[in-house]
Design a protein that fits this description.
- It is a single chain.
- By secondary structure, the protein is mainly β.
- The chain has one domain.
- The chain is built from 4 helices and 9 strands; from the N terminus they run αβαββββββββαα.
- Strands 1, 2, 3, 4, 5, 6, 7, 8 and 9 form a 9-stranded mixed sheet that branches.
- A hairpin with a 4-residue loop joins β2 and β3.
């Protein structure tokens, strides 16, 4: 006869999860899901952005800007596209007046802003004051049902060959730098 070990505690629920309303408030179902797009990002083929955000605002359909959050020391945010499955979710409902909002605007600090392209090359960006993301189908805010916002970014996915870029960089032949005088003598 064979002995089978049985661990009854393996099937128990979490004893600290008493308040199911708190659990529900942190779920994706309890949030407004928006897809953010940017023309410049699509043209350049950007797959990821690392931004030093100083403030965050929403622009309504009339063109009025409504400040949502200001960061005193800056906030380094890594934005990845929907292809990665990652998103940004606000902790609580943004304090916005009822209406329809078409754009989210990220105001940037001068340093620590980087764009990562679909071939995994990086570009440090300076001198960009803000970047606007258009909200696909708009964000409708009513005064009654306030929910957090899930922001998904429509970026280009990485190309297949970009996964092998670190390996190919190791084996690339280094170019010899030869001065003009030496090349004329040989």
């Amino acid at each position: 006869m064979k002995t089978i070990t049985y661990y009854p505690t393996m099937f128990h629920t979490n004893p600290f999860a008493h308040n199911w309303t708190d659990i529900y408030s942190h779920m994706e179902n309890n949030a407004k899901d928006v897809l953010l797009q940017n023309q410049m990002v699509a043209e350049k083929g950007i797959s990821e952005m690392i931004l030093n955000v100083r403030s965050f605002a929403a622009i309504d359909e009339k063109g009025n800007e409504h400040l949502i959050k200001e960061f005193a020391k800056g906030n380094l945010v890594d934005l990845k596209g929907t292809h990665s499955g990652l998103f940004i979710k606000t902790n609580s409902a943004p304090k916005l007046k009822p209406g329809t909002y078409n754009t989210f605007r990220f105001y940037l600090r001068d340093t620590a802003n980087t764009f990562v392209y679909k071939d995994r090359s990086e570009e440090v960006v300076a001198g960009l004051e803000y970047i606007d993301f258009d909200i696909d189908n708009g964000l409708k805010v009513d005064g009654k049902n306030k929910k957090p916002v899930i922001m998904r970014f429509d970026f280009e996915p990485y190309t297949f060959l970009s996964f092998f870029k670190p390996i190919t960089d190791v084996f690339k032949r280094q170019k010899r730098s030869v001065g003009k005088l030496v090349s004329n003598l040989s």
